[in-house]
Amino acid sequence: MFAADWEFAPHRFKETSSQLSKGLTLSQGENWKTMRRFTITTLRDFGMGKSSLEEKVAEECTTVIKYFATFKGKPFENLMILNAAVANIIVAILLGYRMDYDDPQFKRLLFLTNENIRLLGAPMVSLFNIFPFIALLPGSHKKIQENVAELCDFIERTFVQHLKNLDENDQRSFIDVFLVRQNEEAGNPHSYFHTKNLTQVVRSLFAAGMETTSTTLRWGILLMMKYPKIQEKVQEEISRVLGSAQPMYSHRGQMPFTNAVIHEIQRFSDILPTGVLRETTKDVTFRGYFIPKGTYIISLLTSVLKDSTQFEKPYEFYPENFLDSKGNFVKKDAFLPFSAGRRACAGETLARMELFMFFTSLLQKFTFCFPPGVNDVDLSSVGGITNAPQPHMICAVSR
Fold first, then answer.
1. Per-residue pLDDT, 65
2. d(Cα 251, Cα 271) in Å, to the nearest integer?
3. Cys staple from 140: which of 119, 345, 351, 364, with CB 3.0 to 4.6 Å?
């Protein structure tokens, strides 16, 4: 999970420093502790890691399968449909209902989030982060600011609608639970349950709940197209263990090869190579280097995921990196796509469930292959805050 467009305040650049103290991803101190504890507890209450959420994921898998089937094996682009499918899981938790893939508002939210993720890798944004006095110049940083404002406006309008129908005895969404807590602490001037925190938490959960998982799935399909023998082996295990039964997260223990392939997709694709920005809260001496309080720290997760001392073939797509000589799945301490420590991804359990169920469901129903006239795929990534695959077309042939 990452902080998409964290650098920019919703309306004015002068709000940037205060914005960083709100929400979940980049806040600190008691605000962070309170928001993280609330977020994890509420996500669990709404099914994260439980069979009730598995059912929602399974329903979304069925919708995606029907969509893929409409192309009848002909080439199509899978970016927006996978974004929408994965986003709908977190949307159902945040808002209390799923959104239709053709809903113009839903499409707009997906577009804004995708555009910001791409623009965050632009040179002008990097320059702005180093030299904030260029804020008035035109460039990508301006566009991101506009997109963030529009996203926040949508979220705040949603709060109003939830307030109109808020029933403390029937809390149907993450926002409902937050608003009830806000009402309970209305007389506390030091409460962390205020609108700015809710806006930032919801925006972070929406972006992170969509982007990293859907991008990993896109890499997974692309890699299955490039390595058809691995795809066949996954499908053989699915047929042997599941037959035509709906894949559920609980099946992963019975499917070591599929589980290894999914882990290897995450490791190889290296979605978020630099992790999320951190900051030292006190003076630190690390390996002889003095790092003063307030220094921004960037963790290079890719150095762990591609560590040759931990993985036999770190620069190749090699599922055996997670299998022993008998074909049993092997956990690796160096597998850190969700980061590590107290500030590791709050939605890791949800992401693991989604990856297994979407990937297995799709390979149960389809064989993925190149469009006519295409003999290979480009495995280089598109520039941005995440490592996304190059634009490509896929063919989903019904099995």
1. 97
2. 25
3. 119
